[in-house]
Amino acid sequence: MADDRPAPTTQCVPPKAALVRDDIAYILPMAVFLALTWVGGLGPRIYIASYVAKTIVVAILLFLLWRHYTKIRWTYWWLGIVMGIVGVVQWVGMENGLLRLFPNYPRVTVEPFNPTHAFSSTCQMWSFIAIRWAAASLVVPVMEELFWRDFLWRSVAAPGDFRLAEVGEWDGGKPLLFVSLLFCTVHVQWLTAIVWALMAGMLLTITRSLGACIIMHGVTNFLLGLYVLWRKDWYFW
Description:
Elements: H1 22-40, H2 44-64, H3 77-101, H4 122-157, H5 174-183, H6 190-207, H7 210-231
């Protein structure tokens, strides 16, 4: 006897809608960071609050938007450590050398934030320093490398759709030069930053490892924080 019951149907579950477009996911953390950095320049007390805020907000954004980012390769991690050490020597050595040889060379003049003058207690001071150091060593390297040497680099290589370009794609050196020049616009030591960015870009080109660049950035920033605390040279922070 024939079964007249209708055959079961398979329901297609639509894919979960993305929170934002992939390009916005790369841009948003950097935009928030820069906006709160600008707010922090309005005064020492505002600087403290804005720095804590941007560290927390950017970390949350990176976590929420992580699935939009390219899967990070951590190959050549050891070379990232080596280049991070080279990077801090280059950063401190070059900037101090420029100041000695060319006292009037054009540089961004910003009053350095000195935490030893900004807090009423030692506990508050060291709590902020810990946040400042952790942000520079852990949050900023991930945020900046995803933006500069992943999204922007690939956008230069493939202007129509950055996802069509490979991580570290050479494309005649255009991404290396363009990203390195723009990288300096968000750093007070702009000329020194260009050279550092060129080194990071070459590391990316040779290894095709964004993870190595993140490690390089993190090591440089961690050691730079150590230098600042040792020498009390707040200009580098």
